[in-house]
Amino acid sequence: MKAKTAKSLVLIAFLTLLSPGVALADTKRPASAWPLLIAKTKSAECAQILKAAKIAFNSTASELDLDSDPIRKGNVGLVLAPIGREEGAQGNQTFWFDEKYIDSNKDVTESESKASQYWQKSPSNGGIFVVDQKPMNWQGDWYDLCFVDADITKDKRDGLNDRLQKESQSEMKAIPEGMVIYSNLWHRPWLYHNSKSDLIVAVNPRADWLNDSGNYLPDWAIYAPAGGSKVKQIGIIRFGPRVSAFKLLPDGPLRELAKLLDKIIGIPKEDEGTFRATPRLRGEAAIAWANLALRPWALAEPANTKVEVEAGLKTWAKGSPIYKQQYAQLKSLYPQAEKSLANYYQTNGRMAPAAAARLAKSSLETAYRSNFKF
Predict the structure, then answer these.
(1) What is the per-residue pLDDT for 358?
(2) Cβ count near 341 (within 10 Å)
(3) What is the largest CA-CA distance in the chain?
(4) Which of 18, 127, 331, 357 is 20–30 Å from 210 (CA)?
(5) How far is residue 63's CA from residue 370's CA, in Å, rounded to a whole number?
(6) Where are the domains of the chain?
(7) Angle at Cα 96 formed by Cα 92 and Cα 101, nearest 5°?
(8) CA-to-CA distance for 58 and 295, rounded, in angstroms?
(9) What residue ranges in 83-167 does DSSP mark as E strands?
(10) Treating both helix axes as pointing N-terminal to C-terminal, what angle do 277-294 and 253-265 enclose, rounded to 10 degrees?
(11) Is the bond preceding 279 in cis, omega lying within 30 degrees of 0?
(12) Shortest CA distance to 63 belongs to which of 172, 201, 215?
């Protein structure tokens, strides 16, 4: 409870004191502009998803596509979304859905080895969204997001699951039944119902995934029915500048520290198999740096305590003269980076010096620890 209260205070300070005229690092857009809707035309559906995105951005979820609880509570028309077992899901259920709009063949008592499917009950402009979930490996399941003709037979709808699993990972391709928005990817889609238009629209919460854009606050792509079995992208929600996590940080000691820590993570000498421990850790660290710059209230608690990290680094530094040199550089940079971050929060967040210093101290320690697993 205390941790949540502290994060809430950080959020309030950041959002209420932000100056619309102060730009974030490496962008001319003001900090108060995120998240941002990019759309060619105005629509009630895009406005609805933007409202949901703001709830997600202001939540304490470290990754914006994993925690649907804040959005479900926000009453913004969500009808299907990810749910984790830590949120009290029954059995092997990984989606929450509104039975008024969505049906499923999923039995919460089934084993994890069985594929499942979720589909839209009533057509939107001639078609329905279909979501497949299928076991992949120990890392989790694969998901498909499709839009198909409303008159699709049950056999053909059921067959999507198996047929797409035999194909390669893909985004936006035509199939005989309609369109595949994405298939065989790890992330779960979201579906929303708009009460004004009575349309159901879909969100791919990790757009451009296959192109490996390196954006650690991924865009949300919004898809709406376009007549029959066709679907079209009607907007993008952007949560921050499309730059690397390092470039989100102020230039100088803080960015230097982040890059040094990335060097310390290093490159594995051997194939790490599907576990991919090093790339996984590097990705978690990048998410932490992105949140440090844009959403400090949403930093996730790392695996190791500060004491454990310091002990591990001292042992690591004895491994070679280069490690020893990097460790000394780390110790020299850290206080400079903390001061740089405090200045950043003070200037960009218009925070009082003492509050900015406290936030910088706690936030940097968390982001720092996110680079290690000892």
Answers:
(1) 97
(2) 26
(3) 69
(4) 127
(5) 14
(6) 35-238, 245-369
(7) 130
(8) 8
(9) 95-97, 102-104, 116-120, 127-137, 140-149
(10) 170
(11) no
(12) 215
